[in-house]
Amino acid sequence: MNRSARASYKPSMDLVPEVLAGSRNAIARMITRAEAGYAEAVEALAQLYKHAGKAHIIGITGVPGAGKSTLVSTLIKSFTSAGHKVGVIAVDPSSPYSGGAILGDRVRMNDSAEANHAFVRSMATRGHLGGLSRSTLEAVDILDAAGYSPIIIETVGVGQDEVEIVTAAHTVVVLSAPGLGDDIQAIKAGILEIADIHVVSKSDKPEAAATVSALKGMMALGGHAGHQAWDPPIIPVSSVSGERMEELKAEIFRHREHLATSGELADRLRKTCRTRILGVAKHLFQQKFNAGPGGVEKELQLVVERVHDPRTAAIALLGWESGNEE
After folding, report:
1. Where is the domain boundary, 246, 262, 278?
2. Residues 6+ apart with CB under 8 A from 47
3. CATH number of the domain within which 214 lies
4. Most buried residue, 162, 270, 287, 307, by most Cβ within 10 Å?
5. What distance in Å separates the CA atoms of residue 250 and residue 200, rounded to the nearest whole number?
6. Residue 233 · residue 248 · CB < 8 Å
7. Does the keyword Aminoacyl-tRNA synthetase apply (predicted)?
8. What gap in Å lies between CA 86 and CA 60, rounded to an integer?
9. CB-CB contact of 102 with 6 (8 Å)
10. pTM of the prediction?
11. What confidence category does residue 100 fall into, taking pLDDT thresholds of 50, 70 and 90?
């Protein structure tokens, strides 16, 4: 940090009241610090977490090329026209060279966001699997505390077992596109079962009806991981023309009411909190043992030399006695 930057630097705790007041500049700065993992921001993020928990979190996921960004742009317009203060976290693949986000999603949404006073932020995965970045939910906390709701999380195009969004969002929208090849391949990707709402994009294409039929067939076989009390609807939409977008928005609100009345919202909150606790613990573990030669590097060499096996090395790092690790 250069001298002029240091002179203008505001401590994170000083940003907290500004975030709560809805300052877009303060929100952006706090998200940047969360994403960078600044130790100085930990206390401020803890304070903002206490003010969060009011927003409805919508996850938009699906295979690459399904049209997620276009759908999100259309939803921004729909929600803001109804008076909602919308926040969007678009998780982009990390650049293999810089580690930063490839900002295609943000560029495509920017016009819609600026015109409709939404807050859109792209975040890099930084190698984190699961379709989200490590600090995604900290960014959601910041927007939540600032009064944004709904908050939309658009994931990276996900693959098999990369379904972390189900533990982050209240309502998961899985987007499928016609004409992307074998319809069954998307089912094999392991993401359709997590949908609270199925959306088929580009409904004006003739292949859309076949995709809807394939989804209905899968649903008839019980392809849903959630509670059976909710029957996930299948909605073909056109983000370009806006066809059936109001129906999609209505189904999102209907699902929110279902979560509240069925008691499932509390169950999802517990799962989210559990995932976050374990995620932070894993991150702190990696930080601790990557810090110096006395940690993982020492055990690494012993494993390379086959003096220790990986399990023995892990037990040694944890400071446990062999045989007492269960």
Report:
1. 262
2. 13, 16
3. 3.40.50.300
4. 162
5. 16
6. no
7. no
8. 14
9. no
10. 0.84
11. very low
